[in-house]
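TICKET #2291
ISSUE: user wants both folds in one file
ATTACHMENT 1:
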Amino acid sequence: MSFSFQTSIEQWTADLEDIYKRQIPFATAKALNDTVDDIRDYHQMIIPIVFDRPTRYTLNSLRVLKASSRGDLEAGVYFKDQNRRRQHYLMPQVDGGNRPHKAFETWLIRRGVMRSNEYAVPASRLTLDAYGNVSPGMITSILSQLAAGPDAMQWETKRSRKRAGSARNRYFVPQPGSTLRRGIWRRKGRKSIEPVFIFVSGVTYQKRYDFFGISMDRALAFFPLNFELRLMKGIEDQRGYRSRQGMDAPLSTWTMPSDS
């Protein structure tokens, strides 16, 4: 994900003394880095408002690309991808549309338990964790019992099933022709069954997280201020250096234009 914005640095620094113009690239890089740090921190404040009980992983998924003061004046804020070949899981909330398959859905599809166009949605009465997600322990049990896990050593064996006895929750997928809805069901004891996941043909999200708009507004509002502060500091640093070297170190009359 990327966005860009234009600034008027040339116009802002038109009245800057030539002796201090060498500070412009450094001030620009520092201001860009200050701005993307601010954007990341602001998104971390916004995410809990947009999403219900986001996990720590989601809150910490934002990364920043820092600009270099040696001429690489590019900075950004992005979501750390789980897998370079897959779309980040928050992108459907930004752009809208179907969400990508989760890892355990991909394993179920490869095993033939789910169809390639299906998604697994938690059943309405399923108990979720504090973040509204299915517990990792349940996912592991399901994958093991359906022989769909990524590690064959984790698959449940006949001996482990026998040792657990009838008290263990049993997970199964209804056979073709069954009156049960397609999905993953749980058998509790000998007589009781209940749905755990329901297989649906698509999970579509509406646009609800204006990542680009929020980032753009924040950048346009704070980059000029950050640039002004960094350039003024750079001028003072250069004056101090020149003074220590016995060189001419005149005061600068530069100020940020009021219409910036």
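ATTACHMENT 2:
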Amino acid sequence: MSADISGLSVWFATPEYRFWRDRTTIALLPVAAPSILGLFGFAASTFMVAASLAGWYGNAEAPLILFPFALAAGGIAQLLAGMWAYRAQDAVATALHSMWGLFWIGYGLYTLLIALGVAPATSSAAAVAFGVWFVVLAAITWLGAVAAAAENIALTAALGTLATGSTLLAIALLRDVPVVQTIGAYVLLVSAALACYLAAAMMLEATAKRVVLPIGKRRTARLPGTVQRNVLVPGVTVAG
């Protein structure tokens, strides 16, 4: 350790270091938490579609009315949030927002194909194929829920209920069990409510500069958009 500090002191005293110090500009670019957008987009699209699956409203034409918003809020917004989360070094948000964003884009395109008469609206083969979507999503979301357990309770709960709802929908579609689909829809409604709460908590904390709604943080979180700074010198690395 002392050798590293001695070497660093020597480096700072060299003309080369002073040359680059005088010609280097560091600009800090504040980045809002991408998950605020992603969680709100997920909550809105999931609530509307899950409420329809639960039988709260709608008919055979309801999906055709819902899919544009689901495509925009659940698909495009979440995919953008996932890409921005990559820059913010948020691994869980990158994976989950991106995958669910792609799902909602696919759902929107599938619904559009139904409206155009290209894809079948109701058939056992279509239901099974759609159920496979949820098998994949459930597996990825369960992994995300396990990873989120190291961050905060609210995110773990949102992803856990999302994974549970996806699992139930997969079973309902693969085995044609309508009652399980209804139960899965209600679980997804809970997930949407939890996602909305978490997004609101993050937004309020960002504006108030303090915790307004507790989310059960398990560790000191890195601010979104910040990266680890390293000072590199020949033979010496000091993390900042």
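RESOLUTION: both attachments delivered.
EXTRA DETAIL ON ATTACHMENT 2: The longest strand covers residues 230-233.
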